[in-house]
Design brief:
Largest sheet: 9 strands, mixed
CATH architecture of one domain: 2-Layer Sandwich
Structural class: alpha/beta
Oligomer: single chain
Number of strands: 26
Shape: globular
CATH superfamily of one domain: ANL, C-terminal domain
Bound molecules: adenosine-5'-triphosphate
């Protein structure tokens, strides 16, 4: 249109570095991070991140290089979320559950120039470096993060012989950094800010590239989704290495909130931190909610006020949602993938649902909902015709997203990127239905759905029923290969402490609540293997079910 000029006055690449710079002014004296006895203000956080950025730059890291981190939810990881992009580099936070061999693969894949490593994971990092050394791969520089000063007694006696180890130390690096360093904002908002590897539930982790623009929008969406007003107090239960803490690392800075860090997630730590710091918000996969509701009564403390909890990463069983509300938490359910910067949908709550019985409310809340404000479109489509499925709560299709908070692509895997974006939508690989009110509900991952005698069986639907059995703590269902049926449902169940149930009881319970073909034919009682993002490793269970062999060979046809 005539009369317009696009210039730096009105068009600046979106970057969330500005969130920190603003918070240091508006909330300068307020707590930004607390961790045990250590705390920082937003002014200090800006100063420390600026010095960190300058130190990274001085180490020869160029714009666009990857800087990796292997650490739990400690202050340093929070600072790296700003310090690394402020140096112009790309942050790759690695999953702390990986072993040395996987870490070496990811470091090689990302060509990381530096690896920041928490003392607790130093042996994993050193193991990874040894593997890389033997295969003549370029090695990243190691920077060791010791326990913060006031918590130092817990550093398990690790000290550094700085002269001989060749390993740098995090606090030394910050001390040497230049406070006058000119922060390197992105030239283009499409420039990568972070590289997040997927959880590796279905295959090897894929390197998902986030842009400054996408992260900026998803961080704002996260603030809205969590209904965060200014000065929230956020307890970190979501690993910051997972989708950058669902982008809340940056979102909390936007609102000048306090980040309550904790090295590990325990029921005691959660309740203690909530009452000590008057926590207002937290997030966590359903496994975290499970820890909370099943914690012993001497650990549970009354909440000082309502705590808003965002859950996602796996389907939260209605039973758990119901019990969380009883304890005084207010739970919001979100769904997404690493490829959608974490949260992509939200089960927006409507006031008219408040009058429903609590179990009915929990059932509604366990639906995955609608797209959040910053992702343009969400749909369920037939992946072959790309036509939308009818909103009849019955027809199954693939969940697809489109918008500015979908990844740039998979690092060094153009073929996988092209496949993911086939048809002009991001194809999630998740199957679901659309309800008449437009809310979506996941039925399964396309790789997990069981096809038994030609019938589709949603493992999620079956798991929700098993979960509602009073003796069950955790459950997962996979297909057991079968010569006659193709597959039969096989349930892996962990019982609550002090409770008992037999295979036949679980099967009968399912028969009471579901059509006959959906009930499991096999029930195995054992601990379920989890990824560090709280998902059950169904690939491990599928292997076990496969090893059991076909049921139809062993028994007469049912
Ligand atoms: N609220 C939710 N309800 C049900 N499932 C969810 C929810 N949120 C996330 N998921 C599941 O998690 C998946 C995304 O997980 P993530 O991106 O962490 O890696 P992954 O898909 O587990 O790993 P990989 O792609 O390497 O197998 C989604 O595709 C979906 O299957």
């Amino acid at each position: 249109m005539e009369g317009t000029i696009r210039c730096s006055a009105n068009y600046v690449p979106l970057t969330l570095i500005s969130f920190l710079q603003r918070s240091a002014i508006v909330y300068g004296d307020r707590a930004s991070i607390v961790y045990g006895n250590v705390s920082y203000t937003w002014r200090q956080t800006l100063q420390r991140c600026t010095k960190l950025a300058s130190a990274i730059f001085q180490l020869g890291v160029s714009r666009g290089d990857v800087v990796a981190a292997l650490a739990p939810n400690i202050p340093a990881v929070y600072e790296l979320h700003f310090g690394v992009p402020m140096s112009g580099a790309i942050l790759s936070t690695l999953n702390t559950r990986h072993d040395s061999s996987m870490i070496s693969l990811l470091l090689k894949h990302s060509e990381a120039k530096i690896l920041f490593v928490d003392y607790q994971f130093l042996h994993i990092a050193k193991g990874a470096i040894d593997i890389m050394f033997k295969t003549n791969t370029n090695l990243p520089l190691l920077v060791l993060i010791l326990e913060c000063a006031d918590n130092a007694s817990h550093s398990h006696g690790i000290t550094l012989n700085k002269a001989s180890s060749g390993i740098l130390e995090y606090e030394d690096l910050i001390a040497k950094g230049d406070l006058q360093f000119e922060v390197r904002k992105p030239n283009d908002e499409w420039d990568p800010i972070s590289l997040n590897y997927t959880s590796g539930t279905t295959s090897n982790p894929k390197g998902v590239i986030y842009s400054h623009r996408g992260a900026y929008l998803n961080a704002l969406a996260a603030v809205l989704l969590n209904e965060m007003r200014s000065l929230p107090v956020c307890l970190w239960c979501v690993p910051m290495f997972h989708c950058n803490g669902w982008c809340l690392t940056w979102g909390v800075a936007a609102q000048g909130g306090t980040n309550v860090c904790q090295r590990s997630v325990t029921a005691k730590g959660i309740f203690d931190n909530i009452s000590r710091h008057k926590v207002t918000h937290m997030g966590g996969a359903p496994i975290v909610l499970n820890i909370i509701v099943n914690s012993p009564s001497h650990v549970k403390k009354p909440l000082p006020s309502k705590v808003a909890v965002m859950t996602g990463g796996a389907t939260p069983p209605p039973e758990i949602l119901f019990k969380m509300e009883e304890l005084g938490f207010s739970v919001t359910h979100s769904y997404g993938l690493t490829e959608t910067y974490g949260p992509g949908t939200i089960c927006v709550w409507k006031p008219e649902w408040d009058i429903l019985p609590q179990d009915a409310q929990a059932k509604i809340k366990s639906r995955q909902g609608v797209n959040h404000l910053c992702i343009d479109e969400l749909d369920i489509k037939d992946p072959v015709t790309m036509k939308s499925v009818p909103a009849d709560a019955k027809t199954i299709g693939e969940v697809m997203f489109r918008g500015n908070t979908v990844m740039n692509g998979y690092l060094k895997d153009l073929k996988a990127t092209e496949e993911a974006f086939e048809g002009g939508w991001f194809c999630s690989g998740d199957l679901g239905v659309k309800h008449p009110d437009g809310y979506i509900e996941l039925m399964d991952r396309s790789k997990d759905i069981i096809i038994s005698g030609g019938e589709n069986i949603s493992t999620m639907e079956l798991e929700a029923v098993i979960f509602s059995h009073p003796a069950v703590l955790d459950a997962a269902v996979v297909g057991r290969p079968d010569d006659y049926w193709g597959e039969t449902p096989c349930a892996f169940v962990k019982l609550k402490e002090g409770c008992s149930a037999t295979e036949q009881e679980i099967i009968q319970f399912c028969l009471n609540h579901l059509p006959r073909y959906m009930a499991p034919r096999t029930v195995v009682f054992e601990d379920l293997p989890k990824t560090s993002t709280g998902k059950t490793q169904k690939n491990v269970l599928k292997e076990k079910a496969k090893a059991m062999g076909s049921l139809s060979k062993n028994t007469s046809r049912l």
